[in-house]
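Incident log, structure service

09:12 report received: a user says their structure output differs between two submissions of the same chain.
09:20 pulled the input from the user's history:
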Amino acid sequence: MNIHNLSNNTCKLFIIFFAIPHSLIIVLLFGTLLLLAPADVAAAENGFTQQDRERLIRLEVTLQEFKTYVDKRFEQVDNRFKDIITFMGILAAVFTAMMVGTIGFAYWDRRTTIKKAKEDTIYEIEKEGRLRNLIMALRELAKTDSKIADTLRQFNLL
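09:34 re-ran on a clean worker, output below:
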């Protein structure tokens, strides 16, 4: 079994679960390598061999590379979350500004519309009242003046 293939397979396995804490990853990776490593009974009786030492050195290098990769990946994810949160803040500010503008415009529009309607109503009431008073005054004069009476009859006001 080639140690390089073993480390690549193990790294692929742990890339899937990159959210596991670093110390747990190291322990699990080391345990997996020990379980998958070929059992050499003679080496176990004599202690560590040169192959075991070389294997541990390669394992340490692989773990260090994996730790560096996981750290970089976490930094990328953190930066992405910061970007998303910033973007959501900008969206909230834009939405708030639009709502304030819409409510402000509606308030201003209603206020000016009501003010104009009130002015028009007052003008019409005053106009109608003066006109009525004028017609009544002319009818009174028409009782004594025939020219005014003829003019009022011509316009159907008498």
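09:41 both user submissions now match this output. Likely a transient worker issue. Closing.
09:42 reviewer note: Confidence is low (pLDDT under 50) at residues 1-6. The radius of gyration is 47 Å.
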